[in-house]
Specification:
The protein is α+β, with helices and mostly antiparallel strands. The strands form 4 sheets. Strands 3-2-1-4-5-6 form a 6-stranded antiparallel sheet. A 6-stranded mixed sheet has the order 10-9-8-13-20-19, covered by helices on one side. A hairpin with an 8-residue loop joins strand 11 and strand 12. The longest helix is centred in the first third of the chain and has 18 residues. The mean pLDDT is 95.
Length: 446
Amino acid sequence: MIDAVDRLLELALSRGAAAAEVYAEQSVTRRVKVFRGAVEELTSARRKGVGLRVFQEGSVGYAYASDLADESLREIVDMALANARVADHDPDSVLPAPREAPAAVEVYDPGLDQATDEQRIDLALAVERAALGADPRIKSVDESAYADGDAQVFIANSGGVRGQFREGHCYAYAYVLGEQDGQIETGLSFTVGRKPADLDPQGCGVEAATRAVELLGATKPKTTRTTVVLDPFVSASFFGVLSSALTAEAVQKGRSLFAGRIGEQVAGPGVTLTDDGIHPDGLASAPFDGEGVPCRRTPLIADGVLQGFLYNVRTGHRDGRDSTGNGVRGSYQSMPGVGPTNLVLSGPQVPLAELIGGIEHGVLVTNAIGIHSGANPVSGEFSVGISGLLIEAGRVGQPVHEVTMAGDIVSMLRSIVALGDDARWVPGGSVLTPSVVIEGVSIGGA
């Protein structure tokens, strides 16, 4: 693959590109889905391709292909140059210059490559068995699956940036249905790691079952203003949405509620939010980003005070500063954008049982529906559907559902009063977060 990268880069320069960048990847993904003790689906997919970005007279053109034959590479160059000729002038689209060495982070474990299909199937089946055996009210495991991915990434540009790395990850999850007196509730759980041996199928299945049955018998509570505890699942979704407003691109386009607020108190004292692209356990960690810039830790909020934003090369050039290593790509088929890697919420932590024990009236929120569509990163207003458990006199009790939680993001951040001791990685955005206690939140019920 690296030979194809070099050939394409040389070809682009020889055919008239003022500057060029080649990004390539080859990967394999596998997925096992089981149902009622049998394999329902077993898939393996391979992907390979290169993407070429050319810079010509202040404009950028992009083209990609999965065919690495010489004729195909010439076609990629011609298409990219043609696209550059009709693209808008963009003086901020530039290549990164070579910087320090890539970050020393290991994101691949050989144990992933050594796993067999039998082991993958056994993991998925173990999750299903654990869920079904956890409680008689679990009537069905709608989905129990194992999946993994093994990818190699290559990049080279005409400015001297050059690198490659291999990364891998795996996960298993269960989505279950609990039933009692005609009422059906759902529960979801997952376990993640770099290799199958890192996963906990028993814990995953039991947790999914527990999250479903604890909501059986749920009622609609009264509308009130109260303390809420967002469990890590919900907290991760909340901060995942919040991260879109912490990119320089959102600020530059006037789409961020944090624009012009650097140095202001935007969250409760003790709350720290970091984008950590080199966390050893982060599923989005890498030696360098989608533009070849070394990944790093970038403070976003420290002790409640807004510190800055996430940059790729283009947004950094516009603001006269360096990239923070947040040039992200979906694949070789897309140009780099700007976004988070691993979000890490930290601060002084208190045992969760102690936190709940100190709440007279509140709600432990275990599920939120519509966070991504119900939260506005520009105005900060949000309204989402939640379900969970009432907290009365320091005890978790009656399950509730059909509840609306509403407010604005900054007020909610400033009202964070404590963090639990139950931090965990939540995939779907790679967020490390504990439970979060927030005072004075409006919930709408009966």
